[in-house]
């Protein structure tokens, strides 16, 4: 599903965020991406949805070389990828349900499909009774859940989550983890960047460790 | 795809008007003000142009004829004059007419003419030309015709006047160009601010996989509406103000040449509406492009 060959990413300020990354993530896998702040986790995820292009090397997502992708086709790549951002990126002037329907409309769903999907994903994350309020009235954990709901609304092949349990209590974190496992079991490939030792250890999934832009460890059923 | 979603784009554009009413009103008022300034200058410049044309049209060539000109020679000369290109009108003034004019001009003093037995005034042609710049060349041409005693066209005044109108027109054009240029900059910046306020929305849309046209269209419609509404508003204000003002001016200075025909002012209205709408559309298109993550 995702392959990287000798990928380097340098930012314009000469910071080498990623160095010689080689990885193969298969369809349906659940992968934790761990490492200290600034290790390059968010950068790794950005490469996959083509938020950025690699400085060197190849990134292949679902058979597509993202560096060679023409701008006109980028939207179609992204429709296969759900993203839960580290900084949420919710629209705070729209209601909870509109935050989800907005993305679905953007990818060309019909009104009927939109109503169905919004209901379905809000049920899944347990926010159906909050659908008519604005996101700033939600708690932190609920906002995380809303981000997940939005990311999975058009049933993507890949789900990228950047610290989805950051700043949450262990109970809520585990709730969100269970939600992600549930999505994973239905066939979605998930990559989760995380600092959350407790969750990583408990989950016993593949762990990829980054240090100053390099992969220094890649273990099945690993720990933090 | 684009037309399929037209209804959606319009709804989104109007929704955004409603979500940020104050912002939209502020934008429209600012754009209206800029266009009022541009329009005001355009009105001044068409009137200035009319005034300059009026001045220039007063330039004429007077061709004095020898007294012994025969009827046949006179008609050849008339034909020759009329066949010169660039001539608007040729008017013959006979000796008698010249005499009458003079005595009329003298008024009370016309008795002094009775001291002279014979009419001393020559017959003449008064020539009006199309382009004042050609006055010298035409005058030179006329000098060569037979039975022409003297050609007069106020060389010095003509030159000075032409110099003056030339500088005035050039300066006007320059100011106009600067004004239009800066108004484009200012309007597109106002649009940019309204787009900037919604950069998150644009980024998120492009990250969930919206095509760039899908993201841009509501903004383009909104930009168009902002530009269009502002320009129509400023045109209405401008026209009302203008006709009110020229009425007052005409009461004070009745002989001042002013553009009063509504049809003559139509191009100004059209220019303002085009300027406003076009900059609205292009401004929003480029601003959105900046925040699209592709
Ligand atoms: N857009 C950018 N321009 C310049 N430098 C950047 C940019 N984004 C990230 N960096 C730098 O690249 C390095 C890796 O950043 P990245 O965001 O990938 O880290 P991270 O592992 O996600 O950290 P965290 O755990 O704090 O989220 C950092 O040193 C960061 O300062
Ligand atoms: Mg990060």
From TrEMBL, chain A:
Residues of the ABC transporter domain: 2-223
SMART domains noted in UniProt: AAA
Cellular compartment(s): Cell membrane
A Pfam family assignment: ABC_tran
Coiled coil feature spans: none
Gene Ontology BP terms: cell division
Superkingdom in the source lineage: Bacteria
Keyword Cell division carried by entry: yes
Keywords, ordered alphabetically: ATP-binding, Cell cycle, Cell division, Cell membrane, Membrane, Nucleotide-binding
Name of the protein in question: Cell division ATP-binding protein FtsE
GO cellular component term, pick one: plasma membrane
